[in-house]
């Protein structure tokens, strides 16, 4: 802390006024030479100042994010506004030592404002009163850096209506809101500003010569100014060291914090450690545990599952989460959804390795993985209740997995948690929890059915096969091989699709599952149809339908009739397709609550068949209804199929403009999904208007 106290010469007599002179304090440190553009935050401060003559602004954010630099930058731009000077104090809230006593700061401020040392009261309450008296009519700027609490700050607020106080803290300090404070969140720098900061510290030419590695380095540092400055200092110390080499050195997460903590006076690890040490034991334990989460972000329901085992009340968990948020060790992305800054996650994992026993850490991770399985299974049961599943025994009862009132809610959760479900499956397999890994692959089926994503589907199904084999469950292997075969066919790897399909038939036969054998044989029939072997496909479908009629599962009969009916239409025999499709429609009409997806698929098949017979009105009616239902189900790919059919119907009628509009809409969806149907739609667009229409 820098304090300028008035120097008094000669004899002085006090006659009730405690202030002998009024020196102009100029305590504000110089602006940071590495300050990067903070346009939005600076504009927010300017706006708040314009609203009122006096202001208390709290700049809050994680350690090392650049709050102090921002405060100094803005303050220096406003010096001419404060004719009575500036006061500055480092409150040492998170310095590794005890936060600075407000009484010490008040004494220094009073001396800087011209109060003789022997006139400063000993008791804090009297100091506060004198401070308010001295500042009552002054135009002052007060910068309070690294505040620990609202109470620490409140005693240092001047009484003037023309004073401005800027506070920086790793906590939100919402306790200052009754004092009129405005909160300004300071987050990591966006990529361009982060690269700009590197250029200022290292030299623009050096950064411009390695633009791509510089962007990677900014990403590794997570836009955190202190990390960027440390990295820049290492580069500056070694002029021959390339940015690309530095990126390679920091790629290892296990060494990243250490490599960013070696410059004198600057340490990412120490910066985070001060915030961590200020936590309560409950909050520090949750900070460590949540960092073991396999994905990038997580919801409150996951937190309840992790923390609920040790707490009987949700209010307690909310209190602990509030502490982590207040300390800016977690970020709330949207309501009840959270994430770590990348470097904070590494720090929290280090603390977990240091403070938590290995078996406790593994148990916590398994709780998270089983949470995702439990929640996804509930969603699966709502969306696809007709599927066959294997049981699973959880390590203990879970708190937190959501219940879903309807299909839309279940699909919404699956879509929102897509990346976490993927990461959970990877983590389970890597930990050797093969049964759990298979279950996490299996339970992702509704997500893959409705939202596609063929690369994800291949990864999930391939991992499911490997997990089943490691687990030693032949039925599980057969089921996942069947799925994997279909996924390979969808992306055009027909050789692998046939290999997996035949392996699925073999495994189902090993375990004596008649329905499984028929299911896998139908997958092969679909493969034959996809690869131009229409007659072989038709013969296989006919055998499959005959076999299905001997089993009690009427839904499977409907699916096979639908598949054969679509094949008949595609091979120019729509009249033969219609009876099959009508039968499928009758079956799924009885199952509309259980399987609305395939009921809508039947409408697509009927629309195509009616188009083939020339009944354009009925074809259009079916396609419109199919598009409506698929939209309700959020099945974008199948809705695009119905829209594509509407385009073909319009083309048959000679309405090229309507056809073009439908084709473009379908093409946009297929492109977004990387769907194999895209080339066919683009071909038809070209027929209507060449490359311009495609664009």
UniProtKB/TrEMBL annotation:
Region (Disordered): 14-34
SMART domains: TPR
Family annotation (PANTHER family): HTH-TYPE TRANSCRIPTIONAL REGULATOR RV0890C-RELATED (PTHR47691:SF3), REGULATOR-RELATED (PTHR47691)
Name assigned to this protein: Tetratricopeptide repeat protein
High-level lineage: Bacteria, Bacillati, Actinomycetota, Actinomycetes, Micromonosporales
